[in-house]
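yo

u said u wanted the structure for the complex thing, so here. seqs first:
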Amino acid sequence: MKKLSFLLLMISLLVPAKSQQVDEAARLAADKRAQEPMNRKVNLRLEKATLDDQIIELARAADANFIADATHFAETTAPVSGEWEYPLSFLVSNLADAHNLSRYNKDARTFLFWSQPDMLALAHKIVAGESVKRVSTPPDDRALDALLSGWLQRTYGWDGRAPGFVKDIRIAELPPEIRTPVMAWAQEYLSQDSSASALGQAWFTDAAWKGASLWNRGIPSFFKTQDTRRVLWVGLGGTYSSQHGVSGGQQSAIGLFADPAQK
Amino acid sequence: MRTRNTKSSLPAFAAKLIVCTFLAMRTSPAPADAPAEVLRVVGLSREPALQAKVSFEVKRQLLSDLLTDLHKQSGVTLMAAPGSLAGAVRVTARVKEMPLAEVMESLAHLYGVSWSRNAGNTYTMHGSDRSEVEQNLLQMGSMGEATGRYLARTEQQRNELSNAILAQTDAAALKTHEGFPVSALPVDLQRELRRQMEARMSIGLVKAYQKATEAFLNDCIVHMGTPQGILIRETKDGPVRVQQKPEVAIYSPSGELLLRLPFLLPEPPAKRPGEK
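structre next:
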């Protein structure tokens, strides 16, 4: 099971998730509307602008609200001058990339920024057991079903079957007696899929690395893209072996997928 | 943004209640028994006093100073409780005509703080009760973007490492069932290999845990019901008409489907002849 979940995690990193069919045209329309400000071209002119200046000037140029946690911004940044005209999404990404910022779109016009934390250090903490706070003991699927059905019946008079009834609500806006179990249920499923313990045992320990091996079997088809000739990747021995018709071993293995023509 | 686990945070809640009440007594002429009410972030948007629009441009300003400026603009008193970090964290921002409630929500998301209402137009900012890991998970922001940037930034490093390994290993051994032991690589290559691999695996791990944080889930949409109409599903035997089924699903703020659960409702009881 651990190997399977690990493989799923690997695939989820590499293979763009197939967008699920969402049947509500309204949702798509709303998403499109939300994206519109990001696609709008913005003219940005900077003169000897520091990071703080860049944030403010870009917000002004886009007529958007930018709020940044500047606590850990570098004391000095090389000033930037120039003029650009690009979609807002590009300019924001460029700014974030240049200064290692992370961002969150609070709404179509409001952007929050932080200095991006060290992802590897964070992963080590998670693997070591520091996790997210659980709001409550999660209900099982049937209990959640019964809870929601009862609430929808009482609140909206929906019998749980009649087509045409669709309700979208922010989790924060649900009444507390519904919000807590819904959140606990979601937390249970979402953290269950993360395979932290499998990863921790497989790769975040010295022992795993001592027993690891490298393989070079050419590039699997799903790695082949126009601009990728060499890919270094990891997997577990058993999983990789079974995919290639070789009896699986217990030893950890790293795939070193290289274009055979290169060597 | 958060709600409270009444089980685990009851003592903290009670302590904050006492602090808020004390502050309210000191700063406003309201009756001493006026309770301080801890507001969930979402509650802020429903506060009439917080609909005043504010504008500001600040560079690395202390959050405590920004709260003073916001008070001057809106007439609403925003206080910082001891330990709320307001005197320790800095803000760079440009905001134009934004409702004060939304500014307060944004500050809550940025720093993990929460707000309580005291008597009158007075609100108190409280420190974060998020763990460092939870706060860091939220500070990763939009993980899709962070992932793309990370992969692009490290592509050259990855290729250089591949070349270095290929130069140090026996090509034939790499193609065997046993492979080539990592421990036989030079130590610096082993170290770099481990660093790059762990960093890459971290993305999925962090992404999954970020989605499980309370603050992230609060912004998600829970979708319930039975859509109108019939789905046409392509099968190997041709298109099939499928009746839509009742379900509950959770979507991220950006519209990504996170979870889906079909409703397992019992069939309605069969109607007897003549029954309406």
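Residues 22 and 28 of chain A are 8 Å apart (CA to CA). Chain A touches chain B through 122 residues (CB under 8 Å).
cya
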